[in-house]
Design a protein that fits this description.
Layout lengths: L9 H12 L10 H10 L5 H13 L5 H6 L2 H7 L6 H19 L3 H4 L4 H9 L6 H11 L9 H9 L3 H4 L3 H11 L4 H16 L9
Helix pairs in contact: 1-13, 2-3, 2-9, 5-6, 8-9, 10-13
The structure holds a DNA duplex (13 and 12 nucleotides).
Length: 209
DNA sequence: CACCAGGCAAGTA
DNA sequence: TACTTGCATGGT
């Protein structure tokens, strides 16, 4: 954003990004299961690599937790190899599939029947699901109004005068956005997607502004 | 060649 | 609480 005002209200920042980039229509997934699997695979990983892994899973009819639950970890790791950290992520996906199977009979409908605090706790209890992954699932799969903070969010804050806030904890940044924005699923959805879109034009190595 | 990309867990102090 | 390290592929 050229000539960005110093510390613009976050809603103003949202409007600027929306004007500049337009609606993003996130998350890029056809089903809740695909969304959740993508959320694990994209951890610290370029989305283009995630797409290759998702294609492999789709070809093997494994974009669902019933299949992942019974799939050998080694086979899963082989299919998601392009997404990097494949041994870790295979274990993470198995853990998530195991939780859904053991506690909800394999039913995402039943999982998503939990209220937001319980659902968040349930997700965070799975090894490999941290705050960003949990909140992404809550926002984009469960449609709950939770603001998602990621590395780009911190960079956006830094670039617009919120330097100290950008260095604070995950939950502090969530609170910052939550207090300034109406609790609206569609707004949080679009804002986070726009922040990623902005981030792709502002790589770490680029000169600021 | 180095650095980066839609994090997280586990260990240390 | 606040660091540090390992995890790994594919693109620039």
């Amino acid at each position: 954003m050229t000539n960005a005002p110093q510390r613009p209200p976050l809603l103003t920042l949202y409007q600027s990004l929306l004007d500049r980039y337009g609606r993003q229509r996130w998350w890029p997934a056809r089903t809740r299961a695909e969304m959740m699997i993508g959320a694990i695979l994209t951890q610290n990983t370029a989305w283009t690599n995630v797409e290759k892994a998702l294609s492999n899973l789709r070809e093997n009819k494994a974009l669902n937790f019933q299949t992942l639950e019974t799939l050998p970890t080694e086979k899963l790791a082989e299919w998601i190899r392009p997404a990097g950290y494949f041994n870790q992520k295979a274990g993470y996906l198995k853990a998530l599939a195991g939780m859904i199977h053991a506690d909800f009979g394999g039913s995402l409908d039943r999982l998503f029947r939990l209220d937001t605090p319980e659902l968040r706790k349930k997700l965070l209890a799975v090894k490999g699901v941290g705050p960003e992954t949990a909140d992404s699932i809550l926002l984009y799969a469960a449609k709950r109004p939770l603001f998602v903070v990621d590395a780009y969010t911190r960079r956006l804050l830094t670039a617009h005068g919120y330097e100290e806030e950008a260095r604070s904890s995950y939950n502090t940044i969530v609170t910052l956005f939550t207090l300034q924005l109406p609790a609206d699923v569609q707004l949080y959805n679009e804002f986070h997607a726009l922040i990623i879109r902005w981030g792709k034009n502002h790589p770490k190595t680029a000169v600021a502004q």
